[in-house]
Amino acid sequence: MHGLVWLLIVLLTACGITEPNVEDCGDNCPGVQGGQAGGGTGGSGGDAPDGSAGDDAQAGSGGDSGTGGVGGSGGSSGDAGGEGGTPGGQGGDGGACGACPSESPHCAQGSCVECVGDEHCDDGVCIDGSCEACRSDLDCKEPAASRCTSAHACAPCTQHAQCEHLEDTQLCVEGSCVQCTSEDRTACGTSAGGTSYVCDVQARSCSTTATRRSAGLCEACVSDEQCGTGQLCVLQRFDEAGDTPDDGEQDVGWFCLYREDSTEPNAPAGDCANLAPYVDTLSASVSISGTEATVCALRVTTCPAYRHFSAQTCAGVEDDASCGDARFSDGLCEMLSASTFRCTTPCGSNDDCKSGFECTSTEPSYCSLQ
Q1: What's the CA gap between 5 and 19, in Å, rounded?
Q2: Helix (H, G, I), strand (E, B) or coil at 187
Q3: CA 22, CA 43: separation in Å to the nearest integer?
Q4: How is the chain split into domains, by residue range?
């Protein structure tokens, strides 16, 4: 049997058929066909080298919409392919602004802005990246600018509703939020005695001392309501005699004076001559609260001087400045008794003196103190 095998090998060699080179063909080499006793030993496949691991991919660079790098691919398959490279890094932040200037120090959605929240605004609120004065009327705290415009700026009010967020000034008057008016003193309340406080009409705020009907004739006032029935709060003016240059009439202040048409007890009842020394008829006078009427006023002095008559002590005939309004020559200091001097007023006739007192014939003439 062995002889036949060797004979077969010799014949195959003579025909140019040799044993396949397993190193050249690797796993694809066919096994040698065996003889009758069985096939020959098949050629073993060649060992393929292990695949090398792919390189790590680099992370994607930052930018407006950066993406991560692609992961490295695995090595070519052998007995066992190499592991794939590590995943690429995360893409850059698309919202990054870099260095922002001082006037727009905050970053929002890729843009440098002044603010991103109200806390970034020293004064006002943050709207669309900019610091503005207001978002609504509630942000406007000043009485002279309580309304928030469509441009987010605080501006003067045009209606009462734009003042309601201000605790003490809820009425809109001529573009400003005020506490009260001559027509509306609701906010003023009452005194401990139950008398209503009046509105200081010029200040448009509630008085904390003046109450309704509390001021007497020729006393200072801040509202018509402060004066007695039939009286108005009127601006008194005084023309200083002999001033050089002549400054004309000067404002003295607002005082309670009777309307000429008042019929109250001790009122003029239609004629100022009935109310000495208030014999000067001032027609078309407009009161502090806006009422127009004819009033009865003093003719040659002021209310402050008249209130001092026989009530204010002074030092002597050289002390006229202690009497009346110090800005004017509206009062005089005269002797009441051997050691006492009191204030009086100048006069042109008895009509300028309080009832029961006469105008002296001296120069200058004044209302007697006795």
Answers
A1: 15
A2: helix
A3: 6
A4: 106-132, 156-211, 304-370
pLDDT bucket at 7, cuts 50 / 70 / 90: very low
Closest among 338, 281, 347 to 309, alpha carbons compared: 347
Token duo for residue 128 = 């669309």
Answer whether 257's CB lies under 8 Å from 296's CB.
yes
H-helix or E-strand spanning residue 176 = strand 176-178
Which tens digits make up the pLDDT trace of 70-111? 333 433 333 443 444 444 333 333 357 889 999 999 999 999
The model's confidence at residue 229, banded by pLDDT at 50, 70 and 90, is: very high
Residue 161 φ/ψ, nearest 5 degrees: -60, -25
Task: Collapse the DSSP code of 154 into the 3-class scheme (helix H, G, I; strand E, B; otherwise coil) and give the result.
Answer: strand
| Sequence-ordered list of residues with C-beta below 8 angstroms from that of 93, at least 6 positions apart, any chain | 62, 66
3-class DSSP state of 146: coil
Contact partners, residue 324, CB within 8 Å, separation at least 6: 301, 302, 304, 305, 308, 330, 331, 343, 345
Of 290, 279, 287, the C-alpha closest to 255 is 287
pTM flag (> 0.70): no
Amino acid identity at 359: C
Q: The tokens of 61 are what?
A: 């660079």
Region of 230 please: left (phi>0), alpha (psi -120 to 50) or beta: left
Q: Supply the DSSP string of 92-109, one letter for each residue.
A: P-TT---SPPTTS-EEET
Averaged pLDDT of the chain: 81
pLDDT given at position 245 = 85
* Structure token pair of residue 223: 């509202």
